[in-house]
Amino acid sequence: MADNNGGNSNSGGASTNTAEVQIQIPGPSKNEAPAAQEAPAGSSEARNWKWWFVVAADAFFLTVGQTSATLLGRYYYSQGGSSKWLSAFLQTAGFPILFFGLFFFPSKSSSGETPIGKVAMIYVVLGLIMTADDIMYSHGLMYLPVSTYSLICASQLAFNVIFSYVLNSQKLTGLIMNSVVLLTLSALLLGVNHESYGYTGVSRGKYLLGFLLTLGASGTYSLILSLMQLTFENVIKKQTFSAVLNMQIYTASVATFACLIGLFASGEWKDLKGEMDSFQSGQFSYLMTLVWTSVSWQVASIGMVGLIFEVSSLFSNVISIFALPIVPLLGVMVFHDEMNGVKIIAMLISIWGFISYVYQHYLDNKKARSA
């Protein structure tokens, strides 16, 4: 799967300046200020509540979808699954269900639409980057305990701050930089956590490979978020739900096709029948695991892209990190992952970093209300 100031300005087709990219929640964009002053107070308040409702719904989809997809992905490996390309394929293969959304929220044509060829090229590039990201995540989830995996993913916020600054003109403050340092430190603590080696039955070399690939996937994921925001702001310039759905559908379709090629080219498809037969909880459980993993990733993706569209890529990543304490705790309960002292410290540091970022939003919101 734009900043409230930057994203709302898309409807006017204007470019976003540096000051406007700073996240301010809630409130209309500067471009909409005159209209908001002329409109009745009740109408403005209704729009404000509607915006909050959409953001809350997107955050719910992202949190629930990401948590369930991560746990199901680890369950697939713990029950005997071993195909990394299939795991990557599942992260985007559920995109056809999103066509139902286009049926209820059809796209409206306009005279200033971006040329189809340009949009198609962007979707292809994003889809291929997404494919690389999916396969790295699949390796990480295979070689790491789910608690370690999810905590390393916290580093994606640090990457996203960098990409948002370079690509989206995001303003950096002391609190945001504090968040970046803390989340990076959390990931590094897990990288040198020797007690986790061999816990999932893998060697130290594979554990380190899983750590590096998960770290690389987190950086790639952050790049995708910033590129999507850049596309919404400067290319698509539409403030419609169908634009969000189209972004997810077509990038996911490219990634799905690429993963399908990888599945057959690697020869892993030959082992799928035997994998299903030997799945510890049975064939039906195997099929349901694949189906609901795919659906969960699409639910998460809709929330992710929706938050990019409504607020910003950085805010979308912050909500993704909000699920950080949930996955490790569920991993301990469901998969009996070891929650040692280093992991607890890493989780607390990550939560501290998350709170620092949320407090920055509070200050921005307070400043916007007093202006």
Automatic annotation (TrEMBL):
Keyword list, A-Z: Membrane, Transmembrane, Transmembrane helix, Transport
GO cellular component annotations of the record: membrane
Mode of membrane association: Multi-pass membrane protein
GO molecular function: purine nucleobase transmembrane transporter activity; purine nucleoside transmembrane transporter activity
Main location: membrane
Annotated spans, Disordered: 1-42
The keyword Ribonucleoprotein appears for this protein: no
Subcellular localization, as worded in the UniProt entry: Membrane
Listed Low complexity bias regions: 1-19
SUPFAM superfamilies, alphabetized: Multidrug resistance efflux transporter EmrE
Regions crossing the membrane: 51-73, 85-105, 117-137, 149-167, 174-192, 207-228, 249-266, 286-307, 314-335, 341-359
Protein name according to UniProt: Probable purine permease
Annotated organism of origin: Panicum miliaceum (Proso millet)
